[in-house]
Design goal:
globular, alpha/beta, 210 residues, eight-stranded mixed β-sheet
Length: 210
């Protein structure tokens, strides 16, 4: 196992989701049911399980064999897969919805990966993306003070190799043929929800294929 694979293998077992982000994701999907869903970077299946319990057929992909072993107990199908391997996806279905929760910041070429995922999404299919806000006001204060370092978790997790802003996510998806269909971001306590680019801690976007 290569060093990056080993790192993500261990992280996949530790990653979870806050109740706030989970609720925001499920509310944005508005009780979606009876759909084929691909949970990309599914970890142990904690998001996909909620969607399966709502009557959807959920397939998970993750880099970690141990995480997939656990995900198989929760999802309809689950496969060990490196998104940036260039290999064909180990799935045969075309999907109504693709979930990428806290994934794109871990990819060397997120746009190329999503471009490949487009091939297995149905016409007018949707992609849900969540990712940390690089330009959250607290981070801007750090930068002004000359303070930048990687952390064991959070926005500056050591495994994050890409950083995103509100505008950069929307721009990337527009270039790939998707329009913004909804948003329900996670805001730090006591911050104003009217300005997600400044005050959202984690972005939660829903995009629809044109």
């Amino acid at each position: 196992m290569t060093l990056p694979n080993k790192y993500y293998h261990n992280k996949a077992l530790d990653y979870g989701i806050s109740s706030t982000r989970m609720n925001n994701v499920l509310k944005l999907l508005d009780g979606v049911a009876g759909k084929n869903i691909l949970d990309v970077g599914c970890a142990t299946g904690y998001v996909g399980e909620k969607l399966k319990n709502n009557g959807n057929y959920v397939v998970g992909l993750d880099l970690s064999p141990e995480a997939i072993k656990r995900a198989k107990e929760k999802l309809d199908e689950a496969y060990v897969f490196n998104l940036e391997s260039g290999l064909d996806f180990p799935v045969r279905k075309n999907f109504d919805l693709i979930i990428m929760s806290e994934v794109i910041e871990h990819l060397f070429l997120p746009q190329e990966t999503i471009k490949r995922l487009v091939k297995i999404i149905k016409p007018h299919g949707r992609i849900l993306i969540s990712t940390p806000n690089f330009l959250h006001i607290a981070n801007r204060k750090r930068f002004l003070l000359g303070d930048f370092h990687y952390d064991a978790s959070g926005v500056f997790d050591e495994g994050h190799i890409r950083f995103f802003t509100y505008k950069s996510v929307i721009s990337m998806m527009k270039d790939l043929g998707f329009l913004l269909a909804g948003e329900n971001h996670v805001f730090s306590p006591n911050f104003i929800s009217s300005f997600p680019g400044l005050f959202a801690y984690q972005f939660v976007f829903l995009f629809q294929k044109i």
